[in-house]
Structures are given as C-alpha cells and as structure tokens.
Amino acid sequence: MGLETGTYISDLNASNPASGDAKSQGDDHIRLVKSTIKATFPNVTGAVTPTHTELNYVDGVTSAIQTQLDDLDDGPTFSAYLAASGGSISDSTFTKFLFDTEQWDSNSNFASSRFTATVAGYYQINASCQVSPTAPGFITIYVNGSEYKRGAWATVADASQDFSVSGLVKLAVSDYVEIYLYQTDGGAVTPQGGAYVSWFDGCFLRGA
What we know:
Elements: H1 26-40, H2 52-56, H3 65-73, E1 77-81, E2 95-96, E3 101-105, E4 110-111, E5 114-116, E6 121-135, E7 137-143, E8 146-150, E9 160-171, E10 176-183, E11 190-191, E12 199-207
Antiparallel strand pairs: 1-3, 1-12, 2-10, 4-5, 5-10, 6-9, 6-11, 6-12, 7-8, 7-10
C-alpha cells in the first residue's frame, strides 16, 4: 500500500491510496489526513466563514496586515511657523522662507525650516507666507533643493501680501522639502510672523 508520511496538507500525495491497496489499511490514510489538517490549522476552533474569494484578497500579503495599518498611523506629520516678523527677501530671487517655531513634529523630521522624510511615500504639503509691503510673486515647494510645485502667481496689478501653495509630493527616505518665495516688487520685502499668517505643514498620506 502506498502511504506517504507528512505533517501538513502540502505533504499529502493525491495518488494514494492506489486502487489495488487493501481496504484494511484505509484507516492509516484517514488518520494521516486528519493529522495533517489539524497540524495545518492548529488555531481554528470554530467555523471559518469567509468565501474563497474573500480569502484570496490576502494573496500576496507578505507581512501582518495590522502592522501595515499601524505603520500608516505612524506616518510623520508636522506644523511650523515664523514667530516674529523680520528678515529680508530680495527682489527677483528665490529665497528660502524661514519657519523658526514648531507647533508639532510627530517624528522629529522638521529642522532648520526643512522637512526630511524618514518614511517613503506620498505627502500632503501646505504653506502660507505673508510679506510686507505687498508684492507680485509666488511661493513654491522645493524638493531636494529644486523647485517642485509652484503656487499661484500674483501679478503686478494684483500684488499680494499673502501667498499660499499646496500639493501632493512623493518622497523617498532622506528627501527633503522646503518653501521658497519669489517676489518682484523692485526691492526687498520683509516676512511677517505669526502662526496664522506664515506657516508650513505636512503629513504622510500613504506609502509609495
């Protein structure tokens, strides 16, 4: 009689028993089937109700689903602002806007007016800056020292005191984000401080 040995369902041989095997040895096969089922599903103590389609939704999952969901909750978020008016932004020059006070920084990713990603993925980035006097220009999101997404341009006729930008940014680990201002007033302008007028914030949305 052909009788394999095995611990789990994958060890079973579908060709056994052969048609010519003695019926008296059938109990050996039955015990083997029962033992491999119990070893393969040791923690199943009740009815398993998901359909085969529902169970197949986990195909390709390589780590604990709850751990992955928890990691999404742990994605970094920050908010910072310029506390007091001061400094200078030259005419017709991209100038980094400074944000010297943190409201929060959940993973210590923000420093020196720069957010550095420690988790790869997609981030929502927002910023607003106020200057005096009013000036034509715009603010822009910089990634790794290069312009990435620009806010609306304020023309000479619509010279503005407040500039804002918002965008979705894809970051790898160690990529960094900064905010720059470009103005064409003909002279320098002064950044205005206040948590409600000159601020920079962002949050992790999902992995890449």
